[in-house]
Design goal:
By secondary structure, the protein is an alpha+beta fold. The protein has helices at about 1-25, 205-210, 265-270, 345-355, 360-425; strands spanning about 30-35, 45, 60, 75-80, 85-95, 100-110, 115, 120-125, 140-145, 150-160, 165, 180-185, 190-195, 200-205, 215-220, 235, 250-255, 275-280, 290, 305, 320-330, 335-345.
Length: about 425
Amino acid sequence: MMMRMNDRLVLFLRLLVLGTCFAALCLSEVIFEERFDDGWESRWVKSDWKQSEGLAGDWIHTAGKWYGDEQADRGIQTTPDAKFFAISAEFPEFSNKGKNLVIQYSVKHEQKLDCGGGYVKLLSGDVDQKSFGGDTPYSIMFGPDICGSATKKVHAILSYKGENHPIKKDISCETDQLTHVYTFVIRPDATYTILIDNKEKESGSLFKDWKMLPPQKIRDPEAKKPEDWDDEEYIPDPEDKKPEDYDSIPAEIPDSEAKQPEDWDVEEDGEWKPPSIPNPDYKGPWVQKTLKNPAYKGKWKAPLIENPDYKDDPEIYVFPQLKYFGIELWQVKAGSIFDNILVTDDLDYANKLAKETWGTSKDAEKDAFDAEQKKIDEQEKDDDDDAEPEDEDEDEDEGKDEDQEKSDEIEDNEPAAASKKDHDEL
C-alpha cells in the first residue's frame, strides 16, 4: 500500500511539473516576427522622411551576394550610398510589465560598413509611419553602430520619462561582412542581457548600468570641513635650509675656453666678450624638500546622505505601449541586410529561432563569402598581371622612340658632313 501511494505521489509531481511547463509555454507570447518572405511589403511602411531633400534611401528584398539559402536568407537591404533610411512595421500594442522583453534580429553589413548604423528601434503609442525619422521619439534603440576606427559599438538606449539614456558600458559589435544576430533581453527584476550570435556579451542591472534614476545617496551639501582637518599629504621639511650663497650662483658663466677671433676689430666691433655657457654649478631655483605629513587625514569629502530627489521605481523596466518596430539609419556606404526580426517574451524561442535561421546558414554563408573573396583576389591578381606587359611595351616603345630620334639626328647631320668633305676636296 505504501509503495502504491509513493508511486501515485511521484506521478502527481511529474504531472504537476509538466503542467507548469505547459502553462508557461502557453503564456509565452511572440509579439512580432518577421522573416521577410513574399508579401513583406504589405506589413511594412517605407517612410517619406528626407524624400523632399533627395536624401531618402530605399530597401530591396534580397539575400545579398553570399548566403546559405537564397530563399530563407532574404531580408531587406539598404540602397543606395549616402542616404537616410527609415521603415517601420506595426504590431498589436502590448506592455512588458511582469514579463521578459526580448528583441532580436540579424544584420549583415555586406558592403563592409565604414560609417553608419545597423540598429533598430521599438516605438510606443501612435506614430505616423510615413513621417517616421530621426526625430521620432522611441522607447528602445538597440544594435551596432560603426564609424571609422573610433566607433564600433552596440547601442542600448532606453527612454525613461521623456529622456533617452544610453548604457554606460562599452560593448563591441561585429565588424565583418557576415550575418550576426543581436539580442537584447530586459527582465521584470530590472536585469538585462545582451547577446551576439547567441553568446552573452554583457549583463547587469538597469539601475546600475543606465542613469535613469538620480543617485540614491549624495554628498551632504550642508557639511563643512572641520577646522582641524589636515588634508595636506606632504609638508615642507623644516630641517631643509637653503644654503646662504645659493642665490649668488649664476645660471650662466663666460666660456673660459673661448678665444677672441683674430680679425676682431675693437674700434668697429667693440670690446670682445666671451660667449656665455650654462653654469654646471647652477641647480635652478631652490625648492625646499618635503616629507610625509604625520597629521594627514586624507582628502576631506562630505559624508553621504540619502538623496531627497531619489525615488525608487520598481517598474523601471516597463514599456507600457510598445507598438512599432522601426529601422532608421544614415549610411555612407549602403548594403546592410536586416532579417529574422523578433519581439517576444520567450528567450528560449528567440534562441531557437537564431539557431534555425542564422545557425543553419552561417557556415554555408561563410563558405560563399570566402569563395567570392577568392574570385575578387584572383581577378585583382589577373588585372595586375595584365598591366605589367603593358608597362614593358611602353618601355620598349620609349626605347624605340629614343633610337629613332638618334637615327634622325644622324640623318640630319649627314648632309652637313658631306658638304664639309666636298669643300675640303675643292
